[in-house]
Amino acid sequence: MSETIWARSALHAKQRPDAVVITCEGRQVTYARFHLATNQTAHALLATGVDTGSRVGYLGRESEHYYDLAVACAKAGAVLVPVNWRLTPAEVDHVLRDSGAEILFVERDFVKVADRVRGDLSALRTVVQMDGFTAWKSDQPEADLDPGTGPEDPVAQMYTSGTTGLPKGVVLPHRTFFTFIANMRRQGLDWIDWLPSDRSLSCFPGLHAGGYAWFMHCFNVGATNVVTRMFIAEQAVELIERERVSLIWAAPAMLQMMLAEPAASRHKFRSLRKIVYGGSPIDPDLLGRCIESFPCELVQAYASAETGSFVTCLTGAEHAPGNPKLASAGRVCPGNEVRIVDEDGRALPPGQVGRIMLRSPAAFLGYWQKPEATAEMMSDGWLRMGDAGFLDSDGYLFLRDRINDTIIVAGQNIYPVEIENALREHPAVADVAVFGVPDPRWGEAVRAALVLRPGQRVTPRELAVFLRGRLADFKIPTGYSFVDRLPRNPTGKVLRRVLREETAPATP
After folding, report:
1. CATH code assigned to 407-502
2. Measuring CA to CA, how many Å separate 295 from each of 171, 204, 240, 242, 315?
């Protein structure tokens, strides 16, 4: 049971009680205090009727209280369901309804959204406002709990959209946050590592699978997590210097925004020992600027919510100007396996592009209550990634395209069909295809190609207004192209690749 979040909390409280686990907006919590606080929260959860496997929702931004709840869920045997606060009420309703969340914790700014959806959710028994979080649990004991859960039991359910456009719950077990560390240490490698002495900043939100996993990896080694309510580049630059941050996890777009800040300098970043980046492709020019501007190791990583942790890594030593491997996502990390297959599942030789298949000991348990989708994603322990790429003769993975047409904007996954369905509701739209185009700031931008009904006219501004409230803001296209017809293959499938390459410049 040592490789469970609840057991690790007790271990740190005993072995490093005075070390700081979280610092947030000037507030610090030690491992000893955090252990007792999360015990109280876990007892309070149990008192409300939460049981092993119960889903516990959270709608709000990050703080020490969010991670208090996250670890408390592990101690109660429950499963945390973070809800992205950027989602529309309809999207929030879907996550809570699909997960069957029995209790929802909500910050003040999002109470109206919670009130709007809670009435129709039969499973949701209790809503706790975070303003009263401390009082809600104050009369509960601080005694340790043993939920009887092990490494294979679920602890978090992170929602990520699929090709249908409806978010699916990615169920992650305790082992997800231990196996990568154990395998790297077993091989004596430090490609990506977390040290007890680290002061770590994740630019990804903890409501995102990548941000949650990063926090838990740091927590499990006993490091200090520097937590921000949300990523703001100016604040991040100042925070790195003030909090002496040594380790960062960020998307390329976040690194670019930090470097664009007037206060950014090598002196400001002098405390850093390593930056791990991923979540979207990195522009070669930006990578060159990062190598020149950050006085520390840069490490690229490839992962997904379903893999649970990192799969491949381009190490700091390989970030040398002119190295041809800089165009790759690196080598396979210990414990993982990667292969490239054709449409029939046959293995392809080095250099040939096909679907990326991988096997990881940190992988998810499956999609919540979606056995067919799980079976489609997993085959004999191998994950069928939506990415196409190839392995070179040295075993480096090169990404070439996304088979499922996912668009990644600053590390956020966006799926075309969801946006297409919303645009089709507009009376002027006859046909539509949504696709991603390279963007120097965000990695990619969302574009839409539209075929209008005869005699109809609509402006990009009108379309943006129409989509507001139907989609989260970051999903709304930043440009539109108006075409006579969409390119399709003989079976009728839209050729988004052709749109990316041949469509006239979009109207912003």
Report:
1. 3.30.300.30
2. 37, 21, 13, 17, 15
Intrachain domains 330-402 and 407-502 with the same fold: no
- Count of positions (residues) in the chain: 508
Rg (CA), the chain: 23
DSSP 8-state symbol, 396: B
Residue with tokens 């602890």: 155
Taken in order 408, 411, 273, 315, is the CA torsion positive or negative? Answer: negative
Beta strands in 244-393 (DSSP E): 247-250, 274-277, 297-302, 312-314, 331-332, 337-341, 354-359, 366-367, 378-379, 382-391
Contact (CB, 8 A) for 374 and 367: yes
CB 368 within 8 A of CB 169: yes
Give the separation between CA 354 and CA 381, rounded to whole angstroms: 19
CATH code, residues 1-173? 3.40.50.12780
Return the ∠ at Cα 248 (arms to 243 and 252), rounded to 5°. Answer: 130
- The overall longest dimension of the chain from CA atoms, in Å, is 73
163 pLDDT more than 50: no
Contact assessment for residue 495 and residue 487, using Cβ atoms and an 8 Å cutoff: yes
pLDDT digits (tens, 9 = 90+) for 396-425: 999 886 776 778 888 887 878 889 989 999
- What gap in Å lies between CA 299 and CA 316, rounded to an integer? 5
pTM above 0.70, yes or no: yes
Which residues 6+ apart lie within 8 Å of 260 measured at CB? 233
Domain boundaries, the chain: 1-173, 330-402, 407-502
Fold of 330-402: Luciferase; domain 3 (2.30.38)
Torsion angle (degrees, nearest 10) of CA 165, 169, 175, 177: 60
